[in-house]
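Entry:
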Amino acid sequence: MEEIKTYNLTEKEFKNLEKLVEKIYNTLIVLNYFCINQQELEAFYTISPIIENLKQNADILNLFFINYGVKED
């Protein structure tokens, strides 16, 4: 399978992706907080590590959009 090296997004598409990533990240923040504070319920205790991992990955993706276009020195 051929690897795609560049993406051509319009500014509107980029902004839509940025908003979507932000919504996913914020949802995971709430889920993570809820799971941490409800650990007496076994189901929440069990999924806490999964939610934490997803939150960390979403954080990295969110940082991409936050730092997009920032020039490094």
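The mean pLDDT is 83.
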